[in-house]
Amino acid sequence: MTSQRYFFLILILGSLTALAPFSIDMYLPGFPDIARSLHTSPENVALSLSSFFIGISAGQLLYGPLLDKYGRKPPLYFGLALYIAASIGCYFSASIEMLIAMRFIQAIGGCAATVASITMVRDIFPVEDNAKVFALLILVLGASPMIAPTVGGYVTGYFGWQLIFIILAVIAVLIILAVFFFLPESYKADPNYSLKPRPIISGFITVIKTPQFYTYAISGGIAFSGLFAYISSSPLVFMEVFKVSSKVYGWIFAILSVGFIGASQVNSLLVKKYKSAQIVNVALIAMVIISALFVFGSLQNLLGLAGTIIMIFLVLCCVGIASPNTSALALAPFEKNAGTASALLGAFQMCIGSVVSVGISLFKSQSSIPMSAIMLAASSLALFVVLIGRRNIKERLESKVSSFAAH
Asked: pTM for the complete prediction?
């Protein structure tokens, strides 16, 4: 594979991966304006974010089998078309209930891009390169938190929040064109793959029962919920508590994203010297320590705006290092069922993210305490899952070796 082709593949796959985060990040600065426009509260507007997370979580389980049955491109086209239609529906939303519903449908469509991109990494690149490729995708993905909130802040300020959803629809159209002309079909349709409920459920169960998958998919999803806690809380914390404007919030969001993106690229260097499992362990331990300090500082009211930004930045660095490795480790055992495995991986992340975002919306605390507390709980639980899961992985390997030796 030439370096030019490698670059274009990463760029297109990264754009697919970034569609859902872009859909989240761009409208965050508009929360106060949406609340005023639809005569509701910012907490109720946050439910449109929760419905988006729920839609992505549920939709990924749908697209996994479709990608394994029909190949990667046809389900992707369907999902992107649905995303465009729902984005237009968001533009015309006249009530918070309609916006919440349209965001759910938008997520159902957009998650096709997320599942397809992760699956095609497993299709196109060697297993040993997957962690590196995922880190490069995060580099492209990083355009979302760096660009989207800033653009969203200016668009909201000058043209109104509704235009954001037209921009998202145009982005989806451009992605369809890029996929059609430049992205190869990486997996032929399998006419023997059954879409009946029993075989699909059986396929999901087979994936879930694999110790390496459930260990790193669950721990990675839990750790990633620290990012969702930040995304869900940040409009309230920065614009309501610290009273920054939507434009300044966009810049803060962009600055904080550097931690997540930069750490993922440091990971590309780390995987050359250390195993992914080792990197995950260290990243999660660091996340626990930093989150504990964040909770303490929030409870004692010691941080202020600058201190809060620093603590979030450090937590996002830990997530950025852990995430590519947990994804690569979770998908490594699969080849034929890569679509199903990718769907489950994404569903774990988004399901946990939806729970976190709903939980955040229930807190009425005018501080960073809920955000920091969830980050501490997430990192501690993720580390616990890894430590327990590693024993099961080791036992499975030892069992296979013993079985092979017996024969």
From this structure: 0.71
